[in-house]
Amino acid sequence: MLLQESVPVKNEFGATSMEWVDYLQTRANIKFNSGNRVNQNNEIFTSYTLTFTIRYYHKVNEQMRIIYQDKKYRILAINSDRTKQSTEIIGELINE
Fold this sequence. Notes:
Elements: E1 2-10, E2 16-25, E3 29-40, E4 43-55, E5 65-68, E6 71-81, E7 86-93
Antiparallel strand pairs: 1-2, 1-5, 3-4, 4-7, 5-6, 6-7
């Protein structure tokens, strides 16, 4: 899995825009939580959530996003468990 963070970047005109930059690539245990299919405006959207379990010492926050199997996930919740030396991240698929 790959974690990306959003950083401000200035272009040649001095305008600032946000760009996603690779932050950390690590191994993770991935577990499927739930999924559903929604019909909105005659378009079918599938959304599902996964739980990513990584080592405790990685610094992660909710402003980052996850890339896993060429799909992007927004971080909904982060639960650090010091006794198990792990961090659980709940991510939701971003429909683009």
